Amino acid sequence: MAEAAPAPVPVPMPHVTDTQLVTPSITVQRPSIEATLRSYYSALDPVLRPVTDAWQALRERRKALNLPNLGTVEKLQAEVKMVQTTNFQFEGARADLTKALSMNPIFQVTHAFTLAGVGKNAYNFGAVYGDNMRFYQAGLDDTGNVTMRLNRSWMPGHISKIQAQLAPPSGQTFVQMEYDWQGTDSSMNFKALNPSPVNGTGIYVANFLQTLTHRFAIGAEAVFQRPSPEVEEASIGYLAKLVGDKKDWIASAQWQPQGVGQFTYWQQLSEQVDVAADLQMIMMQQRRDAQATLSARYSFRMSSLRAQLDSLGKLSSVYEARISPAFAFTFSGEIDHLNGDSKFGLGVSIESGSEAMDPTLPPPVPPTVPM
After folding, report:
1. Residue 369's pLDDT is what?
2. Whole-number pLDDT of residue 43
3. Mostly located where (predicted)?
4. How many helices (H) and strands (E) in the chain?
5. Which residues pair with 310 in a beta bridge?
6. Under a CB-based contact definition with an 8 Å cutoff, are residues 242 and 251 in contact?
7. Taking phi first (over 0 means left), then psi (-120 to 50 degrees means alpha), and beta for anything else, what does residue 14 get?
8. Cβ–Cβ < 8 Å for 309, 85
């Protein structure tokens, strides 16, 4: 009889403690920032692609038209203002003493004296420095008013500007910041007057001028005023500019929705003579008024004569003559026929350099400062 197979001997299992248990881990790899952005823009591509294609097509079409830049909104009436006597008139006696320390870069100091009767006498000390990238100007008068102007060009067509006036407690203190951009066929400007980052008060202005043809440009100007946190006011004005084929005449129009309009016209009659006309109208419910001005300028080699007549009966004239490269005098006069009033002024200007110039050598070329 065969023997039975021995029963298998059970092998004792080793005791496994809790610390010896191994839990399987799953590693989740987070996508990188580049992959997240790529996925985000890929999702927006069907929406953004038509917009970017249309913008690129518009840029190519504008580039093919080769349209010029017809100026900025700030200088819309620049030619008219150069003919008028408004910015050149003064009363009493005036003397300007200028010391040029350098021509390139420009560095000069000025002493200005004004005698215009009791309470109108003034003295101002000013300094100017400028080169191709920056322009600095500062002034201090006898009443303690400090004025300054800083312009900085970052790249062609991009200029930052800061103007400030620090006055005594009885005066007016303000700060104005600007950013000016000029493209090949358009210009844009942003301006903030006394901005407050705390409560958002101040005056904010944005304007834009776009050339549509080689002679015509249109634009708009938006103004937001917030003198206090409780008071707000906003308005949008429109403007247009038309230039002649030979750039011998310029017409401009500007209209505000409150009912204020200005229309100007400038024409170059010859190399020595140019004329200008200005019409300003106020068409509000509580006030309706208009004023027209006609002016002419005669430019000669060493002198110029400006004459102006307005609808209020004022006749004014400013005559500037340069006797020598370092000496010039100015005569200003205004007669108000309706009110029987008159104003006259006489001024002299003396300039001197830091060192004598050789007459056999050409004069140094001043830099083109960012204005």
Report:
1. 85
2. 73
3. mitochondrion
4. 2, 19
5. 293
6. yes
7. beta
8. no
Q: Which helix (H) or strand (E) holds 105?
A: none
Spatial CA neighbour of 150 closest among 175, 172, 125, 168? 175
Give dist(CA 218, CA 215) in Å, integer. Answer: 11
Assessment of whether the complete model's pTM goes beyond 0.85: no
At 28 the pLDDT is 53
Q: Domain-by-domain residue ranges, the chain? A: 78-353
Long-range contacts of 18-26 (CB under 8 A, 24+ apart): none
Residue 156 DSSP symbol: T
Tokens linked to 294? 């006609």
Mean pLDDT rounded to a whole number for the chain = 87
Query: What distances in angstroms separate CA 262 from CA 208, 228, 258, 259, 312, one per listed residue?
Result: 18, 29, 13, 10, 17
Non-local CB neighbours of 289 within 8 Å, separated by 6+ positions: 281, 282
Q: Which two structure tokens, joined as six digits, stand for 176?
A: 């104005």
Token representation of residue 268? 């170059």
Res 359 pLDDT > 50: yes
Superfamily of domain 78-353: Porin (2.40.160.10)
- Rounded distance between C-alpha atoms, residue 313 and residue 29, angstroms: 84
- Structure-block tokens of residue 291: 């004023």
In total, the chain counts a number of residues equal to 371
Backbone conformation region of residue 86, classed left if phi is above 0, alpha if psi is from -120 to 50, else beta: alpha
Q: What is the pLDDT of residue 352?
A: 87
